[in-house]
């Protein structure tokens, strides 16, 4: 299995997300059908920070979970059997937020396939987000490939 890297254009060729909801900038390393490490810069210019929270901006938890899901999408949609499918978010489990993610932070996202139902095209990935080497969030995301 080869180690794979991807830039933003290559990521856009795999997943259907686009700005402003594309929340992965690069794939640092991916082992086909097994695991992925990706990166994302939390741009302070994102409109969400005007309201969450004006005096102490922090990345919303729903965005944090979406970052884990999109990283998992890249891993799953890179598998030949799911290429070209639309990933539908169908579940989250065991999510724990451990540290605030702030504007200007650069995140490292790691995900690995932990369960797959081939018949139903449903895949669960265990994911973690690190901010400056500190675990900021972890949990399982389940996606249906349609």
**Largest beta sheet: strand ordering:** 1-2-3-5-6-7-4
Per the principal axes of the C-alpha atoms, what is the gross shape?
globular
Mean pLDDT: 96
Residue windows where pLDDT falls under 50 for at least 5 positions: none
Q: What share of the residues lie within helices?
A: 10-25%
Order of helices and strands: EHEEHEEEE
SS class: alpha+beta
**Major sheet, described briefly?**
7 strands, antiparallel
Question: Which percent band covers the strand fraction?
Answer: 35-45%
What is the count of DSSP helices, taking H or I runs of 4+ residues? 2
Q: Span from first to last CA? A: 26 Å
What does the radius of gyration come to?
15 Å
Q: What is the tally of beta strands?
A: 7
Report on this model:
The chain is α+β, with helices and mostly antiparallel strands and 146 residues long. It is 15% helix and 42% strand. The protein contains 2 helices and 7 strands. The protein has a 7-stranded antiparallel sheet. The radius of gyration is 15 Å and the shape is globular. The two termini are 26 Å apart. The mean pLDDT is 96.
Characteristic terms for this protein:
146 residues; alpha+beta; seven-stranded antiparallel beta sheet; 7 strands
List the helices and strands and how they pair.
Blueprint: E1 3-6, H1 8-12, E2 26-31, E3 35-41, H2 61-77, E4 87-97, E5 106-117, E6 122-131, E7 134-145
Antiparallel strand pairs: 1-2, 2-3, 3-5, 4-7, 5-6, 6-7
Quick description:
The chain is α+β, with helices and mostly antiparallel strands. The chain has helices spanning 8-12, 61-77; strands spanning 3-6, 26-31, 35-41, 87-97, 106-117, 122-131, 134-145.
């Amino acid at each position: 299995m080869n180690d794979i890297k991807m830039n933003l254009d290559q990521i856009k060729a795999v997943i259907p997300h686009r700005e402003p909801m594309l929340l992965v900038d690069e794939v640092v390393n991916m082992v086909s059908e097994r695991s992925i490490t990706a990166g994302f810069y939390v741009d302070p210019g994102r409109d969400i920070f005007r309201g969450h929270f004006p005096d102490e901006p922090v990345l919303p938890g729903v965005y944090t979970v979406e970052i884990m899901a999109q990283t998992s999408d890249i891993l799953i949609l890179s598998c030949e059997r799911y290429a070209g499918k639309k990933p539908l978010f169908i579940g989250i489990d065991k999510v724990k937020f451990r540290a605030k993610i702030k504007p200007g932070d650069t995140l490292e996202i790691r995900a690995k396939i932990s369960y797959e139902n081939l018949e139903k095209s449903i895949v669960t990935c265990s994911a973690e987000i690190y901010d400056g080497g500190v675990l900021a969030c972890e949990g399982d995301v389940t996606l249906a490939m349609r």
